[in-house]
Amino acid sequence: MSNTRLRFAPAPTGSLHLGSARTALFNWLAARGLGGELILRIEDTNAELSKPELIDNIYRSLDWLQIEFDGEPVRQSERTDLYNDAVEQWLSDDLAYVDDGAVRFRVPTEGVTSWYDLVRGNVSFENEHIEDFVVRRADGTATFFTANAVDDFELGITHVVRGEDLINVTPKVLMLRRALGASDTPEFAHLPLIVNEQRKKLSKRRDDVALESYRERGVLAPAMINYLALLGWGPPDDIEVRPIEEIISLFELTDVNPSSAMFDLKKLEAINAEYIRAMSPEDFSHALTPWIKEESWGAVVGADELLKVAPLIQERTKVLSEGPAQLDFFFLTNPEFDEAAWTKVMRSDEAPLILSAVKTAVA
Questions:
Q1: Is residue 329 part of a domain?
Q2: Domain count, the chain
Q3: 218, burial (CB in 10 Å: exposed 0-12, middle 13-18, buried 19+)
Q4: In this structure, is residue 62 part of a structural domain?
């Protein structure tokens, strides 16, 4: 294993959303491709917003995606002494000062803070446009800048892969990193924003962004991973649906497109449908079972019975939650009869084939 170390650092202030899931995936792809380690760091310094159930949601969502981490998770709430030691050292070195109970870092009034970004190329900020920023609040808690800089330094993080919405944080973190005595700079990669079909940034208030909602609808984890990988990156041969092992071997942070990536639900469902069609009948029937069992009639459906009829809908199923509505007439005592749909099917050229398949399935 190389000395390469990356980290995924979610804040447990809500359900893990699509943007964070994509960031976790790109970190994981980069770490595995480089033969390095990936650390999970929970940024839970805000006690009011960081709830245990939200931390559990992060773990559950990452487990569903099968994103694996190296070592135990790091909790920032357990590292406050490290942050305070750093702030006290900055005060002692006259690199920071007390301001109305809080502590601010002295930003140089001249020069630039710059780095080479693997996604965006050369990025620089004029120091004169950056105000002295708070590194410790008046209540004694460390700010995001401090915890971020200290942890990346102490944990030996070599690559920082995160969303472009945090690019303005980077010059401040670099200043603090140098104040900690670091002589090196991590590789940075600021990923493009994910936008909706109206080209607006995905919003928790406006868009369906929670990862768990797609799992509950019946999106398969491998399909979600495959689709998330395409949000900002694409394989050189343009073959989009492929095994995760191939994605790992092809993925390069330098190939990530800096332009915003649009979340396309229809494309996600199309990819998911491909994964469903590739399943064996047994695996598809097994995957469908939780959705069947949620129906009032589902309790009486045995595994053998479901295996007989599930393949009839496998070719046209986009998400697993569609299954019950397509199969209920096999098991309901008095199913609703859609005469218009029946007439349409019976007039088609495929009517004999459909009737034969149904007869065979229920025999």
A1: yes
A2: 1
A3: buried
A4: no
The beta strand positions in the chain, using DSSP E, are 5-8, 37-42, 74-75, 96-99, 102-105, 112-117, 121-126, 134-136, 159-163, 187-191, 194-195, 261-262
| pLDDT per residue as tens digits for the range 18-75 | 999 999 999 999 999 999 999 999 999 877 778 889 999 999 999 999 999 999 999 9
Question: Is 66:248 a contact under the CB 8 Å cutoff?
Answer: no
Give the model's pLDDT for residue 1. 52
Which pair of structure tokens corresponds to residue 321?
A: 């939650």
- Percentage of the chain modeled with pLDDT above 70: 97
- Beta-strand pair 102-105/134-136: antiparallel
- Give the CA-trace dihedral at 54, 59, 65, 68, to 10 degrees: 150
The two counts, helices (H) then strands (E), for the chain are: 15, 12
Q: How far apart are CA 305 and CA 310, in angstroms?
A: 9
Alpha-carbon gap, residue 38 to 30, rounded angstroms: 9
Q: How would you class 3 by CB atoms within 10 Å of its CB: exposed for 0-12, middle for 13-18, buried for 19 or more?
A: exposed
Angle at which helix 351-362 crosses helix 339-346, to 10 degrees, equals 110
What is the span of the domain harbouring residue 356? 279-362
Is residue 219 domain-resident? no
Alpha-carbon gap, residue 308 to 274, rounded angstroms:
21
Is the Cβ–Cβ distance between 253 and 118 less than 8 Å?
yes
- Write the CB contacts of 106 (distance below 8 Å, at least 6 apart in sequence): 94, 95, 96, 97, 132
Residue 155 lies in a domain: no
Task: Give this prediction's pTM.
Answer: 0.90
| Side-chain-facing half-sphere of 200: CA atoms under 13 Å | 7
Q: Would you say 202 and 228 are in contact if contact means Cβ atoms under 8 Å apart?
A: no
